[in-house]
């Protein structure tokens, strides 16, 4: 059963850990460049994820046995490594994006490794599986590219928060679909992305002279976007193929952060930053809210009767045991 106290504990510790690591690394230099800020965020996110997952005690195993294990032990270290290297100016942009695209195309195959979807011998089923993996990888590439472009174009802390909203929504949807462990894995992602983003914003806002970045007040580290997009996609992919999330809601949650692009319309582009940020979050939250309402209704319709039977049976056994002791 879900343990809300444990979830809050993991979120608080992961947020604090990632923020402290980012602030500590940025304090090592009198002037931090964009490369240094990105490296600090990547290391902070990695540290926060390690600590947060340890608090949740997800019982990961090596070699990985399921999609969640492969996400946390293969995919996430890979994206952290890619974003760390891609932040350096000596790494050509083309090379960085080739690495990102390669990971995007490989992620569905990694998550489905050893599953029934790939172990079938039927030609039509195998071909559908490969088509699904290719289309999913291209979808991940598209979302990653568009959000990275928006982060470079106009930036804003709201992009990171929009990703956090979508990731948390996906975690709740996965839980409501019956995969509690998979849904709980979203908590450290949300916590570390928020912690790293807020720490970086604190530095760029209160000590702007120490940051050598153009438009530092709107800067979003590439590592934050990369980890956020890949974790969102992977959680939804796991929920779709190993949980009870249907394709429509999964696609909706994956594409929801792209609604941040609506503020690039000429009518909204030059509005005050707080208004632009608010509009972005509202636009992203609307479809996510509809998805959560539908998921809750499905849960009440299909799962609540089963839980009621379990609770009633457990109460009856406890009452019978108490009577026997008397």
In short:
With 326 residues, the chain is mainly alpha-helical. It has helices at residues 4-26, 34-56, 67-86, 93-112, 116-119, 123-153, 157-176, 180-184, 186-206, 222-242, 247-255, 266-269, 273-302, 304-325; strands at residues 32-33, 211-212. The chain is built from 14 helices and two strands.
Structure description:
By secondary structure, the chain is mainly alpha-helical. It has one domain. The protein is built from 14 helices and 2 strands, in the order αβααααααααβααααα. It has helices spanning 4-26, 34-56, 67-86, 93-112, 116-119, 123-153, 157-176, 180-184, 186-206, 222-242, 247-255, 266-269, 273-302, 304-325; strands spanning 32-33, 211-212. The protein has a two-stranded parallel ribbon with strand order 1-2. α7 runs parallel beside α10 (222-242). The radius of gyration is 21 Å and the shape is globular.
- Specify the structural class: mainly alpha
Terminus-to-terminus distance: 30 Å
* Number of helices in the DSSP assignment: 14
Mean pLDDT: 85
| Overall tally of domains | 1
Shape: globular
Roughly what fraction of the amino acids lie in strands?
under 5%
Helical content stands at over 70%
Task: Identify low-pLDDT runs.
Answer: none
For the largest sheet, list the strands in their spatial order: 1-2
Largest sheet, strands/sense/barrel: 2 strands, parallel
Radius of gyration: 21 Å
Q: How many strands?
A: 2
The helix/strand series, from N terminus to C terminus, equals: HEHHHHHHHHEHHHHH
């Amino acid at each position: 059963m879900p343990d809300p106290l444990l979830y809050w504990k993991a979120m608080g510790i992961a947020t604090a850990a990632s923020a402290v690591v980012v602030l500590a690394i940025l304090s090592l230099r009198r002037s931090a460049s964009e490369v240094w800020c990105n490296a600090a965020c990547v290391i902070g996110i990695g540290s926060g994820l390690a600590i947060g997952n340890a608090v949740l005690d997800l019982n990961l195993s090596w070699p990985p046995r399921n999609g969640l294990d492969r996400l946390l032990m293969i995919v996430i270290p890979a994206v952290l490594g890619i974003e760390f290297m891609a932040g350096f100016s000596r790494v050509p942009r083309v090379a960085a994006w080739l690495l990102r695209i390669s990971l995007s195309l490989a992620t569905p195959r990694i998550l489905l490794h050893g599953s029934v979807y790939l172990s079938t011998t039927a030609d039509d089923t195998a071909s559908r599986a490969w088509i699904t993996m290719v289309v999913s990888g291209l979808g991940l590439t598209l979302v990653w590219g568009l959000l990275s472009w928006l982060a470079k174009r106009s930036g804003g802390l709201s992009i990171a928060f929009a990703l956090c909203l979508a990731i948390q929504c996906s975690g709740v949807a996965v839980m409501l679909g019956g995969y509690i462990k998979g849904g709980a894995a979203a908590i450290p992602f949300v916590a570390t992305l928020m912690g790293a983003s807020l720490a970086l914003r604190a530095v760029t806002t209160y000590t702007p002279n120490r940051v050598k970045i153009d438009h530092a007040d709107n800067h979003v580290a590439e590592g934050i976007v990369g980890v956020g997009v890949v974790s969102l996609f992977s959680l939804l992919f796991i929920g779709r193929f190993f949980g009870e999330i249907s394709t429509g809601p999964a696609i909706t949650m994956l594409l929801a952060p792209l609604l941040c692009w609506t503020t690039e319309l000429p009518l909204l582009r030059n509005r005050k930053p707080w208004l632009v940020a608010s509009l972005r979050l509202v636009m992203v939250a609307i479809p996510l809210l509809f998805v959560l309402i539908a998921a809750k209704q499905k849960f009440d319709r299909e799962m609540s009767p089963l839980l009621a039977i379990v609770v009633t049976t457990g109460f009856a056994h406890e009452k019978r045991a108490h009577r026997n002791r008397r």
